[in-house]
Amino acid sequence: MTEDDFERIKEVVLEMKDTTELMIDLAYSSLIYNNQEIAEEVSHLNEVVSSLSLELRRMAVGRLSRKNTDLALILVELSYSLQRVADAAMEIADVVLRGLPLHPILRRSIQEGEVGIYRAKVSPKSKLAGKTLGEVELASETGIWVFAIRRGKKWIYGPDENTRIKEGDILFVRAPDESRKLFLKLCSGKKKL
Amino acid sequence: MENKDKEIFGGERVSIREALVEMKSLSEKIIDLAYAAIIFDSDDLANEVENIEEKLDRLLYRVRLTALMAGRDPQLAEQLLGILQVASAAEQIGDAAVSISRLLSTNVEYRPFIPFILKGGDEIIRALMVDESSDLVNRSIGGLEVEGETGARIIAIKRGNRWIFNVSDDTVIKPGDTLIVRGVEGGVEDLEAYCKGERRWGQ
C-alpha cells in the first residue's frame, strides 16, 4: 500500500464517519420540523456514503487483498458498518419522505433527551451575524453544534469553520439541554458571546 | 402528559415516549462507545457496546408490542408506523456500532491502523486523565455543565479497574479518573487543560 493509498483511505473513512453523523442530525430534524427538503438531503447524502463505501471496498479488494488480507477485511467491514448507520438515518428520514402523519410523541421524544435539536433565526442585532463559525467557536465554548443553515431558499448542509453566518440565517443546531436558552439568546441578540 | 401517552397507546403500561427517548440517547452513546472501543483497543468498552445493543433490542421489542396493541384506526396506525421506523432505525444504529466494535477481534497486527484513521473527523474522541489539582475534582458533571462549557461530552469514565458507563449529571468526578470524551478539537483541548489543572474552571 502506498502512502497515497493510505491517505485516501483515511480521507474516505473520515468523510463517511462525519457524513453519517450529519445524516442522523438531519434525519431527526426532518422529523421535528416535518421538512421534506432536509429529508431529501439525507437521501442525497446516503448516495454519497454509498459511493464512498464502494470506493473503500474497491481499494480493499483491488489493491490490498493479496498482500494484506486482514487489513482489506477491516476496511470492508468498516465500510459496511458505516453504510448501515447511513441506512438507519435514511429510515428515519423516510418517515418524512413518505409523508406519514407524525405522532406528537415522536417530536417530543426526540427533543426530550440530554441532547436536542433546535433552530433559530439570526437577528440583525445578534453578535453572530457577520462572523464565521470558526470565529464564534460555538461548538467548543457552548456545545452548540451547527449542522445546517437555511439562507433564504438556499441550504448549507454541514457548514465548516469558514462558513460565515449572516443575519436572517436560520441555524439548525444540536446542543445539550443546558445550552438551549443560550442559543436562542445568542441568535436574538439578547446575549453576547 | 404521561397518562395521555399511555392512553393513546391503548392503556399499555409502557410509555412509548419513554422507550423512544431512551432509544435515541442510547443510539448516540453506542456509536461513540464503539469508536472509543476501537480507538483505545478496549474489550471492556466493546462489551458495553454489546450490552447497550441488547438493551436497544429489548426496547424495540417493547415499542413494537405496544404499537401493535394500539393501532386500531388507520390514522393512528400510520402515525405508529412512523414511530416504529424511528425505533427500528435506533436499533439498526446499535447493530452498526456492534459491528464496528467487533473490528477489535481482527488480526492484532492491523489494529493500530483503524484508531489512527478514526482519531480525526469533525468531532474527536479522546481519553483525559483528571489530575488531583484539577477544578473538576469532587464536582458533578451537571453542576459543572461540562458540555455547555466545552462542548465536550463525557461518554464513559474509568475509575481504577472499574468503568462507569451510566454517566449522568449527578456523576461526581474523582482525582485519577480517566474521562472518555467526545467533542470538537478546541473544546476537548480546553477540557484537557481543566483536567490537568492547567486552567481554572470557567476561565
How would you characterize this protein structure?
The complex is a heterodimer of chains A (193) and B (203). Chain A has helices spanning 3-32, 36-64, 69-97, 104-112, 133-136, 138-142, 180-188; strands at residues 115-121, 145-151, 154-157, 170-176. By secondary structure, chain A is α+β, with helices and mostly antiparallel strands. Chain A has 2 domains: 3-97, Phosphate transport system protein phou homolog 2, domain 2 (Methane Monooxygenase Hydroxylase, Chain G, domain 1); 114-188, Alpha-Beta Plaits (2-Layer Sandwich). A 4-stranded antiparallel sheet of chain A has the order 1-4-2-3, with helices on both faces. In chain A, strand 2 (145-151) and strand 3 (154-157) form a beta hairpin. In chain A, helix 1 packs antiparallel against helix 2 (36-64), helix 1 (3-32) runs parallel beside helix 3 (69-97) and helix 2 (36-64) packs antiparallel against helix 3. The longest helix of chain A has 30 residues, at 3-32. The model of chain A has no long low-confidence stretch (mean pLDDT 92). By secondary structure, chain B is α+β, with helices and mostly antiparallel strands. Chain B folds into 2 domains: 2-109, Phosphate transport system protein phou homolog 2, domain 2 (Methane Monooxygenase Hydroxylase, Chain G, domain 1, Up-down Bundle); 121-196, Regulator of K+ conductance, C-terminal domain (Alpha-Beta Plaits). Helix content of chain B is 56%, strand content 11%. Chain B is built from 8 helices and 4 strands; from the N terminus they run H-H-H-H-H-E-H-H-E-E-E-H. Chain B has a 4-stranded antiparallel sheet, with helices on both faces. The radius of gyration of chain B is 20 Å and the shape is globular. The interface between A and B is large, with 56 and 61 residues.
